[in-house]
Structure formats: structure tokens, C-alpha cells
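Reopening this one. Same input as before:
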Amino acid sequence: MGFKDKVLEVVRKIPEGHTLSYKEVAKLAGNKSAYRAVGNILNRNRNPNIPCHRVIRSDGKIGGFNKGSREKIKFLKKEGSILI
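Same output, byte for byte:
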């Protein structure tokens, strides 16, 4: 299993109402310094079963989302995630 597949598997398992940082996802996928790669992988993902919106920046800010920041915020609020 390659790094991309590991990233998508980690993100797929993030429960509703919870978030992980790009750095946490990178570490769980096996490469703690590849957090930028995590962002790029998630930006290209179009699988609706992978909840990419649940991955945020380490400083608690939203970060990017392939459907736009407003949609990401909307999804997170709907799931009950606490936003800074």
C-alpha cells in the first residue's frame, strides 16, 4: 500500500464530529514530515466516501478543500466539529 492509499484510509476512518491535522494524518500514514503531500492528495480526491473536510491545519484553521472553504466549514458545523 502506497502513501496515498494510507492517507486516504486514515482520513476515511476519521469519525463524524472529529478532525485531524494534515500533520497528524501524515504521521498516521507513516511519514510525519509529508503533511504537504497529504494536502495535495486530499485536494485531488473526488471520492465522497473520504471525508477530506475533516482534515484541518495544525493551528486549528480550516485549510483548503477541493469544494471551497465555505463548503468545508458548512460540513464541519453540520457534523458538530468545534471551529476556531
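So the earlier flakiness isn't reproducible anymore. For the record, Residues 69-79 form the longest helix (11 residues).
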